[in-house]
Design brief:
Distance between the termini: 63 Å
Strand order of the largest sheet: 15-16-17-14-13-19-20
Number of helices: 15
Radius of gyration: 23 Å
Strand content: 15-25%
CATH topology of the largest domain: Aldehyde Dehydrogenase, Chain A, domain 1
CATH superfamily of the largest domain: Aldehyde Dehydrogenase, Chain A, domain 1
């Protein structure tokens, strides 16, 4: 088990460094258990890290693609070897079940393996020029120094899908993880460093987003920032980056719909709704918190969903019997409970759950909540709650369902459950979302394909898969006289 009282330090220019203060990472399943103590960095340490990365970039960006491939493969290998150990750490620090946490570690390994392969597949183009005797080469080069800011809900896979392509394409990194999951980030960085990444190429600065993230966003020496987090924070980062024209890749909020039509396989639709809305304690940007149900089956669906919810076991994340672990923090739990009050105040019916519950240990345990009689204009249907809270909206038919699904500022993920191929294909083409799931949960994405949304959910090039190259590289067009 990785729980330790050794103080985890920041990594700056190849050295593990003290910070301005120390903060504790606490187990949300057991508030009496401290997972780790970590140092909190400063704006000055961010500047040192950026300078170190800038110095290291000259050599790393021209390093052998085979060297980069081998390093990423060593990272993947150690992640696989330690998947159980690291899964327990993720589970204890973030609160997701051990099954989910271990699967996330495996996903991180898969991501490093994929981008190890991409190191060997960096392509360019050779075109004929409109001028006789001239050839055109179009090549890709590393962007430069990249600032990576990651969230607490997916503490090892999201850092992996940012760090792996950044390194694969020859960039240098300043990495700021969410404070709540700093120990997980530290262990990932430690693995990468021991895999052979040179001094200064990867730097870790833990601590407050207002201090660390702000310093990164305001620096003229950061060439790009990849951010995953709230829409509010994303807009602040974008504003700060605008002064220097910093390249941005941002994954932000979601208010994802799952449409259930009357012809759907009901058992499958109920499974999709439970998974989409409540698994991982609803703390996924792709979670479906809006369940849009056709009138003909609405009442049956709500009652059947409540029966499924009654069977969900909420408890300590390490308990094999647990289906849903705790909410990640006191602040997040308070936010969830505020939205329960907001929904009832708006006139929605709290059909099930929505209260804090006691566990066998002191923790942030909450019974998943289901609202019925919800209209799409309510705050509970328009604002991201980021917890196990879903609202059911009744619609007359498919056309109204599509209209309601698109009636949001967000556009990350959307799903539909139906046996009607025409409706499924029409929904896939016309729903305003970057990710569409047909007869599947809205949450869950393959590691080798693009990930991202539309409208207020995303900004800039897509993450993951071969699309990652669009953010982490820049193109160069060269003209050659033959």
């Amino acid at each position: 088990m990785l729980i330790t009282m050794i103080v985890l330090k920041n990594l700056i220019d190849g050295d593990w460094r003290e910070g301005d203060s120390i903060f504790a990472s606490t187990n949300p399943s057991n508030l009496d258990e401290i997972v780790a103590q970590c140092v909190s960095g400063s704006a000055d340490q961010v500047m040192e890290s950026i300078a170190a990365a800038k110095t290291a970039f000259a050599e790393w960006s021209h390093s052998s693609i085979l060297l980069r491939h081998d390093i990423l493969m060593r990272v993947a290998s150690e992640l696989r070897e330690r998947e159980v150990e690291l899964g327990r750490l993720v589970s204890c620090e973030q609160g997701k079940t051990l099954r989910e946490a271990t699967a996330e570690v495996v996903r991180a390994a898969q991501i490093f393996e994929f981008f190890a392969g991409e190191c060997l597949r960096i392509q360019g183009e050779k075109l004929a020029s409109v001028r006789p005797g001239v050839e055109v080469d179009i090549t890709r080069e590393a962007l430069g120094v990249i600032g990576l800011i990651t969230p607490w809900n997916i503490p090892i896979a999201i850092p992996a899908w940012k760090i792996a392509p950044a390194l694969a394409y020859g960039n240098c990194i300043v990495f700021k993880p969410a404070e709540l999951v700093s120990a997980t980030a530290w262990h990932l960085v430690d693995i990468i460093c021991r895999a052979g990444v040179p001094q200064g190429v990867l730097n870790l600065v833990m601590g407050s987003g207002k201090v660390i993230g702000s310093a990164m966003a305001r620096s003229p020496d950061i060439d790009g920032i990849s951010f995953t987090g709230s829409t509010t924070t994303g807009r602040t980062i974008a504003t700060n980056c605008a002064e220097h024209g910093t390249k941005l890749q941002m994954e932000m909020g979601g208010k994802n719909p799952l449409v259930v039509l009357a012809d759907a396989d009901m058992d499958l639709a109920l499974d999709c709704a439970i998974d989409s809305a409540f698994f991982a304690t609803g703390q996924r940007c792709t979670a479906a918190s809006r369940l849009i149900v056709e009138d003909a089956i609405h009442d049956y669906f709500v009652q059947a969903l409540i029966e499924r919810m009654k069977a969900i076991k909420i408890g300590h994340a390490l308990d094999p019997a647990t289906d849903i672990g705790p909410v990640v923090s006191e602040g997040q739990l308070e936010q969830n409970l505020r939205y329960i009050d907001i929904g009832q105040g708006e006139g929605a019916t709290l059909a099930f759950g929505g209260s804090r519950i006691e566990g066998t240990t002191r923790g942030y345990f909450m019974q998943p909540a289901l609202f019925s009689s919800a209209s799409n204009g309510m705050r509970i249907c328009q604002e991201e709650i980021f917890g196990p809270v879903a609202a059911v909206t009744r619609v007359a038919d498919y056309d109204e369902a599509l209209q309601v699904a698109n009636d949001t500022q967000f556009g990350l993920s959307a799903g539909i459950c139906t046996r009607n191929l025409a409706c499924a294909m029409h929904f896939r083409r016309n729903v305003a979302a970057g990710i569409v799931a047909v007869n599947l949960p809205t949450a869950g994405a393959d590691f080798h394909v693009p990930f991202g949304g539309r409208k207020a959910s995303s900004l800039g090039p897509r993450e993951q898969g071969r699309s990652a190259i669009e953010f982490y590289t820049t193109t160069k067009t060269s003209y050659l006289r033959c």
